[in-house]
């Protein structure tokens, strides 16, 4: 390391688990949450992308709240499954902490789900971060793919350099 240099290097270490789907790879509660996310893809309204996404949020009170992507002819007006589920959960059960969110996706034209884990968009990552900040605890994230499941102990893994209320 050149200590005289005005430019320092920094890096993030982001940890997550890569699980191979199969029997007993996940605790029962996680497996159930993923099944709920998969089922929620059936409620997707995606006539424009034909890309059906489902999300399921497990709350501290034991409730599971699901959401799916809801598209619009004015494209940006649509919402992703993750935000639908998180905001719906907060609206249904204000003040109850979401413990985990599972996300799954499939193409309407194909059988089965995406092989690789679905990757939430930046806006949904920001909403997950707000949920963590709001309740002062981690939100676990389960990103489902038929060939791999990513298990994140915190949504922070999804959003380094996150913007939060401390900046305001
Ligand atoms: N979408 C989600 O709902 N969640 C994601 O993680 C990625 C993308 C939706 C938005 C849009 O309705 C469709 O998938 C294609 O981008």
Instruction: Give Rg in angstroms.
Output: 17 Å
Write the element-wise H/E pattern from the N-terminal end onward.
Answer: EHEEHEHEE
Regions with little confidence, pLDDT below 50 for 5+ residues:
none
Helix share, percent: 10-25%
User: What is the helix tally?
Assistant: 3
- Assess the beta-strand content as a share of residues: 15-25%
Description:
It is a single chain. The protein is an alpha+beta fold and 168 residues long. The protein is built from three helices and six strands. The structure holds tetrahydrodeoxyuridine. Tetrahydrodeoxyuridine is lined by residues 46, 49, 51, 53, 69, 71, 78, 80-82, 103, 118, 120-121, 124.
Outline the fold blueprint.
Layout (H helix, E strand, L loop, with lengths): L16 E3 L8 H13 L10 E9 L4 E5 L12 H12 L5 E10 L14 H14 L4 E5 L4 E4 L16
Parallel strand pairs: 4-5
Antiparallel strand pairs: 1-6, 2-3, 2-4, 5-6
Bound molecules: tetrahydrodeoxyuridine (THU).
Short description:
By secondary structure, this protein is α+β, with helices and mostly antiparallel strands. The protein is built from 3 helices and 6 strands. The mean pLDDT is 96.
């Amino acid at each position: 390391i050149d200590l005289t240099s005005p430019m320092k290097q920094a890096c993030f270490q982001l940890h997550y688990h890569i699980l191979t789907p199969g029997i007993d790879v996940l605790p029962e509660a996680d497996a159930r949450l993923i099944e709920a996310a998969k089922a929620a893809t059936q409620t997707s309204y995606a006539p424009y992308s034909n890309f059906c996404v489902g999300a399921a949020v497990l709350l501290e009170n034991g409730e599971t709240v699901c959401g799916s992507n809801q598209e619009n002819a004015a494209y940006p007006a649509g919402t992703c499954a993750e935000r639908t589920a998180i905001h719906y959960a907060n609206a249904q059960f204000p003040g109850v902490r979401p413990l985990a969110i599972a996300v799954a996706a499939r193409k309407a034209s194909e059988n089965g789900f995406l092989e690789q884990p679905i990757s939430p968009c930046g806006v949904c990552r920001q909403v997950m971060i707000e949920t963590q900040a709001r309740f002062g605890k981690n939100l676990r994230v389960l990103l489902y793919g038929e060939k791999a499941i990513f298990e994140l102990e915190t949504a922070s893994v999804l959003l380094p350099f996150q913007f939060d209320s401390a900046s305001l």
